[in-house]
Amino acid sequence: MTLKRRTFSAVRWTAAAGVFRALLQIAQVAVLARLLSPADYGLMAMVSVVLGFGGLFADLGVNSAFVQRQEVTLGQRSSLFWLNVAVSSGIALLLVALSPLLSTFFGDGRLTPLLMLSASTFVLGALGQQLKMAAEKALHFRPVILTEVSAAIMGFVAAVLMALGGWGVYALVLSGIVSASAGTLLAWLFLADGWRPMWRLRLSDVRSFLGFGTALIVNNVANQINLTLDIFLGGKLLSAAALGLYSVPRNLALQVQFMVNPVITRVGFPLISQVQHDVARVRSIYLQTLNMTASTNAPVYVGMAFFAPEIVALMLGPGWERSGELLRILALWGGIRSTANPVGSLLLGMGRADLSMKWNLALLFLYPPALWFGSHFGPEGMAWTMLGLMMTFFIPGWYFLVRPLCKAGLVEYAIAALRPFVFSGIAIAPAYFLALQIDEPVLRLVLGIGIAAPLYLAVSHLGNREWFRAMLQLAGRRQVAES
Predict the structure, then answer these.
(1) pLDDT over 90 for what percent of the chain?
(2) 408 backbone φψ class: left, alpha, beta (φ>0; ψ -120 to 50)
């Protein structure tokens, strides 16, 4: 199968998975928010922060190096596999030992058993992670997506059954363990393709991967601090219930990106890796990736911002009303953040984890003091701070990350990223004001979607047609200049 056909196949399967995950996530939030309390979600938010940091070290970054490197021997692959398992096991044991101290720090003893149970997901995930990365490296996304979707369904069913049984926050923790176990088992059944790791773990095999991996780890640690600092500070300064009211709409905003962006970016990383020496092709792939993700995300995020109270009333039910205004702010934050996310595929595909590392380390000097100040004004203060920071770094992100690697200009970068948001605002604003005439929140939301969807498709079609013409003209001028 040609590279073009494999790329189209990968995009189709990741797109189907994105739609399915979105529906599953909506169903899970809608069901569990009525069975669990905001305090349960606040506790899980603190657990997730700790797991997020531990996960950064689980493979020392070598799995991404494995995808970026085109030639890997069987001996190297086996050593990389066992290195991942060994490090993940060590992190799991360390988390078990540190759980009482972390609970003391957050001031809630209920976290200790939750963290101990959650530690097992590091080992369970490591046993199948490389199999998924090997399939993605070859752009064989169909079996990867099927295993992930199946594991997600099992985790969802487990969460609902345990929540109905009165397990509280343990329903969320144990569903993660079920999902990780199922994902690894299915990976060995359907992704291994006859491969079995040798009993081999040699430093000489993995040394060349560790340079890329080390830079990636430092980058991911800095990025994770910047991303989760609001939850970390919220866990320290806010009650579990207040943190839950903030973390659920925050996660809703992030879930849109986590579900939609991989449709394109998971394909973009290995694809850019294969054409990394052709800057013109890299620029074309990146700008298409950016525009496709923005075109998909923009109407969702803008719609969330307009209809935030209605979405909260429909999905979360009574007791979550304060989350409505928080979702309005965080939807705008998530929308801008989603346009920055595809740069990860560019940086990793070009083998420049070091550049991403320097960027995220620089942000560490600005994010902590800003969020510490915002956290003193409650959840709303943190939400506004997150939005302000994301807007501030839009142009610097292009200048330091995108421009050096693919030579994309600021105008074409801004058009690819922001044009869909303008189209979305034009389409959704009239739908919102028309829907305001209806008192029932659910009917307002349904009417708004019914009016906005065809308007967005029409505006997007007309606007993008002119944009593509301009891009073709720009590409023609560039080709003449470069020749």
Answers:
(1) 23
(2) beta
Strand ranges inside 12-166, DSSP E: none
* Among 222, 209, 258, CA closest to 359: 222
Query: Mean of the pLDDT values across residues 401-409?
Result: 88
pLDDT at 407: 87
CA distance 44 to 114: 8
Angle of CA points 266, 268, 270, to nearest 5° = 85
What's the whole-number mean pLDDT along residues 69-95?
86
341 DSSP 8-state letter: T
3-state DSSP helix/strand/coil percent for the chain, to nearest 5? 85, 0, 15
Whether the per-residue pLDDT at 367 is higher than 80: the answer is: yes
HEC profile of 374-430: HHCCHHHHHHHHHHHHHHHCHHHHHHHHHHHHHCCCHHHHHHHHHHHHHHHHHHHHH
Lowest mean pLDDT across 178-182, 208-212, 335-339, 420-424? 208-212
Q: How far apart are the C-alpha atoms of 117 and 122, rounded to whole Å? A: 11
109's CB contacts (< 8 A; 6+ apart) are 103
Written as one letter, the residue type at 273 is S
pTM (2 d.p.): 0.65
Instruction: In whole angstroms, give the CA distance from residue 221 to residue 52.
Output: 9
Ramachandran class of 211: left when φ > 0, alpha when ψ lies in -120 to 50, beta otherwise: alpha
pLDDT average, residue stretch 84-101: 92
Higher pLDDT, 350 or 40: 40
CA distances for 174 relative to 93, 297, 366, 450, angstroms:
18, 31, 36, 38
> d(Cα 401, Cα 109) in Å, to the nearest integer?
42
CB-based contact 54:100 (threshold 8 Å): no
d(CA 137, CA 259): 20
For residues 312 and 291, what is the distance between their CA atoms, to the nearest angstrom?
Answer: 29
Q: Of the candidates 329, 256, 307, 326, which has an alpha carbon nearest to the alpha carbon of residue 38?
A: 326
Residue type at 256? V
**Residue 418: which of 307, 330, 297, 306 has the closest Cα?**
297
- Residue 40 burial by CB count (10 A; 0-12/13-18/19+): exposed, middle or buried? buried
Write out pLDDT tens, residues 16-51: 666 677 778 778 878 888 888 888 988 988 898 888
pLDDT tens, position by position, 264-305: 666 666 677 777 788 888 888 888 888 888 888 889 899 999
